Structures are given as C-alpha cells and as structure tokens.
Amino acid sequence: MLNFIDPDVSSGEKATDSIEMRIKPSVKSGIVRAAELMGVPLTAFVRASAMREAERVLRDHQTTVLSARDQRALLAALDNPPPPTKAALEAAAQYRARIANAG
C-alpha cells in the first residue's frame, strides 16, 4: 500500500457514478495481481490508476513548453509589442460597435 491514494477516499465527494467496461481475462488478471501487490481493493486500484492517467493527459494538454529561443521571442514581444494591424484595428472597432448596440 506504499504511496497509494484512492481519490474517492481523499476527496470526501460521494461516489454516485459508475463506469462499466469489458476487458480480456488476461488484462483483468494483470490488474488484479497489481492491486493485490499494492494491498488495495481492485476498484480502488482501477479508480486511482485511471484518475492518475486522466490528470497526466489533462496536464499535458494544458501545458505549452517553449524552447529557450521561443521563450526569449515571447518575452521580447511582450516587452515591445508590435503595433496592431489594420485588420486588428477594424475587428476592435466592430467589436466595440456591437457591444455599444447590444444594450
């Protein structure tokens, strides 16, 4: 049970939803064995494993990693932004007109 945290136990939120899936017997036996080695119930093991992977995927999709060169270019653009283009100025004017006429 080393370093095992069941998200349902730690959150205090009541579990009311369920997920059903079919898996191959060999896959299930591997998951069951892993849960046994951790000393935790199968459902807690599956729940924690799925949540850990979901958090990793969400984190990966919410994070943008820039190279050192791109970091410098971004910071330089923030410190000294280029003037707005004609299209940007027109879009801003159209937006202001729509907002002014919305009320």
Give a description of the structure.
- This protein is mostly helical and 103 residues long.
- The protein has a single domain, classed as Single alpha-helices involved in coiled-coils or other helix-helix interfaces, CATH 1.20.5.
- It contains five helices and no strands.
- Helix 2 (25-38) crosses helix 3.
- It starts with 6 loop residues before the first helix and ends with a helix.
- The mean pLDDT is 90.
Radius of gyration: 25 Å
CATH fold-level name:
Single alpha-helices involved in coiled-coils or other helix-helix interfaces
The residue fraction in helices comes out at 55-70%
What is the SS-derived class?
mainly alpha
By CATH reckoning, the class would read Mainly Alpha
The fraction of residues in strands falls at under 5%
Report low-confidence residues grouped into runs of 5 or more: none
How many domains, as an integer?
A: 1
Q: How many beta-strand elements?
A: 0
- Shape, please? elongated
Along the chain, the helix and strand elements come as HHHHH
How many angstroms separate the termini?
A: 60 Å
Brief overview:
The chain is mostly helical and 103 residues long. 67% of the residues lie in helices and 0% in strands.
Give the arrangement of secondary structure elements.
Blueprint lengths: L6 H5 L13 H14 L3 H21 L5 H12 L6 H17 L1
Helix pairs in contact: 2-3
Features:
single chain; 103 residues; mainly alpha; Single alpha-helices involved in coiled-coils or other helix-helix interfaces; 5 helices; 67% helix; 0% strand; elongated
